[in-house]
């Protein structure tokens, strides 16, 4: 699968979850997990490790949870799409866990209608099905991310 770095903390590189590694939004727009945020806050000051902006933050819970990102993670789990692991390579075909049962090839295309991953070998025969529309895994993940970012923007606009 393509790089899914946005699903892991940029500090500890552990995949986000809904417990100790909940994604939090810093005021500067960067995300990091609750555990790393707790380790970085010194004297109620948080200095973003990405942009070095300083923010007044007493405890990690003072920063909002990135619910959009949690929704993406839940979507992956509900479709049984494997999330990145600390030791798992993020390049297509680098693991033998996500391979086509028929061809042994990497599952690198997504069918929007059928809602499952297929390999490139299955792509031609699959797209002849009426109404099926497929895309690469990179585009599918981007579409999911964009959809959730759009929902976040709409929610933020409603709060203003």
UniProtKB/TrEMBL annotation:
Keyword Magnesium: no
InterPro entries (UniProt xref): E3_ubiquitin-ligase_RING (IPR052667), Znf_B-box (IPR000315), Znf_C3HC4_RING-type (IPR018957), Znf_RING (IPR001841), Znf_RING/FYVE/PHD (IPR013083), Znf_RING_CS (IPR017907)
Domain named B box-type: residues: 95-137
Domain RING-type: 9-52
Superkingdom of source: Eukaryota
Keywords of this entry: Metal-binding, Zinc, Zinc-finger
GO MF annotation list: zinc ion binding
Keyword presence, Zinc: yes
Alphabetized Pfam families for the sequence: zf-C3HC4
Protein name as catalogued: RING-type domain-containing protein
């Amino acid at each position: 699968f393509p790089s899914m770095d946005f699903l892991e903390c940029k500090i500890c590189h552990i995949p986000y979850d809904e417990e100790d590694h909940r994604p939090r939004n810093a005021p500067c727009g960067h995300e990091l997990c609750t555990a790393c945020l707790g380790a970085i806050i010194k004297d109620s000051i948080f200095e973003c490790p990405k942009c070095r902006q300083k923010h007044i933050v007493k405890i990690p819970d003072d920063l909002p949870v990135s619910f959009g990102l949690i929704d993406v993670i839940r979507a992956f789990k509900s479709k049984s799409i494997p999330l990145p692991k600390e030791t798992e390579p993020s390049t297509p075909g680098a693991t033998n866990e996500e391979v086509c049962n028929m061809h042994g090839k990497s599952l690198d295309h997504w069918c929007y209608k059928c809602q499952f991953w297929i390999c490139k070998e299955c792509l031609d025969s699959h797209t002849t099905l009426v109404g099926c529309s497929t895309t690469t895994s990179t585009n599918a993940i981007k579409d999911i991310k964009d959809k959730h970012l759009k929902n976040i923007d709409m929610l933020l606009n409603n709060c203003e």
